[in-house]
Amino acid sequence: MTATETEIVVPPEAQPYLAAVRALLDSLPSEQRDELLDDVAAHLTELSAEGDGTLADRLGPPSRYAADFVSSAELKLPDPDPAAAGRLRDAIHVPAALRDRWDAMRPAWVVLRPFLVALAAAQLFPGNAFVLVSFLVLAAVSVRRSQQLAGSGWDALASLIAVVALVVIVGQWTGARTVYVHDAGPAPIEGPLSKGDGSPVTNIWAYDAQGRPVRVFLYDQLGRAIEAPVVDSYDERTGERIVSDLPTDANGAPVANLYPRPQRRIGDTGESRNEPPPAITTPRLGDDTTTTSTSTSTSTTTTTTTPPPTAAP
Amino acid sequence: METSQLLKGVLDLAVLAVLEDDDGYGYDILRRLREAGLDEVGDASVYGTLRRLFQAGALSSYVVPSEEGPHRKYYGLNARGRTQLAEMTKAWRAFADTLDRLTNHENGEAA
Q: What pLDDT digit, counting tens, does each position of A109-118 carry?
């Protein structure tokens, strides 16, 4: 059934048209193309026998003829080197719909691929310009050569390397920092004090064991000042803005770890009024109402008592 | 609307239908479609459709020597092709009826 080029016989006047169509179908697999050209030759021969007008007059340009033929036969003009691509696809059994989608995305992937590798290289060898430049050169070369390499083993290897690079990038990125994601919630506040949902603690109202408000300097376990972020917060019930100002020392310099900070509430109309301490009740302690109610139980295990850090402002 | 656009969707049915009674070769089938009134049918799309229906197993094919020119490849409906023709005919009738009702209704309102 399959005819080679020499077996296709058409009248001389049909030869140029057939040659043009053959050139347009050149990228089809040879078996498909020869079968199709058989049909084309038969068609052109019949038309020539009728003999009114040129073939181009009656059929339109060869490009449209070839396109109509291929599309109505639902053949696809494949990428260059169809044999290798075909073998790979046959081996993998990719569904046709997925394959078509992939064919459409392939050019973008080819461009993206080397940059993934370069990015991974930059992450793995930070600050090493030689490595980065080398990979960028490779990237440029691979994009330029991608047409020739399409469907080849090198193409598959390049994709494999790019996927590995993607894994490296994602791994480095997620390993480098822990990100808490709050759906539609406030962005996490940079600073030492925030609630579990990421909303900032902007002020601290301190009370002694008898429930009396006190002013305190706060330090952490290493004697570092605990400084709440200076950002606005909002009263959830009224929507009013609550602003905390930093107290100042004798020289007028702000003291960021003295609490409570003077707190103001700003209403809808912009008027600002001082915020009194929140109406809270401290828990009633047991009979042993000293400030170190837990010290008796822990003293047996804590043999040496660490004195508080000496960090007075 | 151009008839060629409408044709695209129903060319399979048209080709199967003209092959129902008689086998035919490519150019012959093209001529029958034209004679039936499908003037705008494209040569290449008929040949392409024949090739696709053949690949899909709806048509059988055989070569007949011809005195005046090259051998001709004839196509005919096989069992699968007849089933496909019956199904497509049914679907077409339902579709055409629906559009008839739709367009008549619109004409009535406009008048």
A: 777 887 788 7
pTM of the predicted model as reported, rounded to 2 decimal places = 0.44
Cα of B78 to nearest chain A Cα, Å: 19
Express each pLDDT in B81-96 by its tens digit: 999 999 999 999 999 9
Q: How far apart are CA A138 and CA A156, in angstroms?
A: 16
Q: What pLDDT, in 10s, does the model give residues A253-276?
A: 888 899 998 888 887 777 888 888
Q: Does B34 touch chain A (CB under 8 A)?
A: no
| Neighbour tally for B111: CB within 10 Å | 5
Instruction: State the smallest CA–CA distance between residue B102 and chain A in angstroms.
Output: 30
- A62 has pLDDT over 90: yes
A-to-B residue pairs, Cβ atoms closer than 8 angstroms: 67
CA of B101 vs chain A CAs: smallest distance (Å) = 31
Report how far residue A72's alpha carbon sits from residue A64's, in angstroms, rounded to the nearest whole number.
12
Q: Which of A226, A261, A223 is nearest to A243 (CA)?
A: A261
Most confident of A97-106, A143-152, B34-43: B34-43
Instruction: Detail the DSSP E strand segments found in chain A.
Output: 206-207, 213-214, 216-217, 233-234, 241-244, 258-259, 263-266, 272-274
CB contact under 8 A, B44 and A69: yes
| Cα(A169)–Cα(A225) distance, integer angstroms | 37
User: Are A41 and B70 within 8 A, CB to CB?
Assistant: yes
DSSP string, B18-73: HTTTS-EEHHHHHHHHHHTT-TT--HHHHHHHHHHHHHTTSEEEEEE--SSSS-EE
